[in-house]
TrEMBL record:
CDD domains, alphabetized: SDR_c
One Pfam family, short name: adh_short_C2
PANTHER family, sorted: 3-OXOACYL-[ACYL-CARRIER-PROTEIN] REDUCTASE, CHLOROPLASTIC, SHORT-CHAIN DEHYDROGENASES/REDUCTASES FAMILY MEMBER
Family: Belongs to the short-chain dehydrogenases/reductases (SDR) family.
Gene3D superfamilies documented for this protein: NAD(P)-binding Rossmann-like Domain
Organism for this UniProt entry: Amycolatopsis bullii
InterPro entries: NAD(P)-bd_dom_sf, SDR_fam
Protein name: 3-oxoacyl-ACP reductase
Amino acid sequence: MSEQREIVVTGGGTGIGLAIAARFAAAGERVTVTGRRKDVLEAAAERIGARAVSFDASDPAAVQAALADLPSRVDVLVNNAGGNTDRVREAPAAGDLKGLADAWQANFEANVLSAVLVTAALKPRFADNVRVVTLGSIAAKQGSGSYGAAKAAIEAWNTDLARQLGAGGTANVVAPGVVLDTEFFHGTVTEEWLDARISLAFNRRAGRPEEIADTVRFLAAPEAAHLTGQVVHVNGGAYGAR
Ligand SMILES: NC(=O)c1ccc[n+]([C@@H]2O[C@H](COP(=O)([O-])OP(=O)(O)OC[C@H]3O[C@@H](n4cnc5c(N)ncnc54)[C@H](OP(=O)(O)O)[C@@H]3O)[C@@H](O)[C@H]2O)c1
């Protein structure tokens, strides 16, 4: 039997990240999940048979300190940690430039720095043929303020990463449309909003975390060796990549 691969999934304690981690663990891979809330993370890791390493992926010192607990070889890195920080913040009042700057900074840190820092920290441990998959969003194409802008930045960063890896591995972005059954929306979804979003999809429904997980697993497979530097959209047709 071939050696088990070492998989790291950031934000793997809930939602899409948990579904990704569960798929890899069920396939017999060695999985490490990360996240800030130790209790949530450890309970999730125990349920799916993964290791838990708790740290803030957007904090350089915390990422550095976590290295001691992360695997010494990484075959697959899934940069999934993130979310739209505007959904848990009070919107800045018109003219409050400091508040506006803070809101943009928060989405940049949560979605861009988290991936950039963890990838840079683990890069010396990347195995030959490493697979890096980073969660983008349909928002990179359709807007959504600083969140969409942060996810668009991830796409540009991924191009450089794929180029740097060259023949030594692949780097791709998976960009979901609306996915329910995660903590992403923090209870802010209204029926009206959801109906409007779902009406954009050809299949008239939201995505499921497991469907994103299956796409990530395909990109992490040996068969996907020639697929790099791409953005793979998973949205039921709500955005047509061209
Ligand atoms: N759901 C959607 O409709 C949708 C659509 C497009 C893209 N996405 C993207 O998919 C990814 C997963 O989101 P989700 O829907 O599964 O939401 P979620 O359930 O809120 O998952 C996000 C995970 O990331 C962790 N996280 C957030 N910031 C972190 C940080 N600074 N350091 C470490 N961990 C952090 C969270 O755990 P802690 O809070 O404990 O740290 C949480 O487990 C995100 O990148 C999101 O932007 C989601």
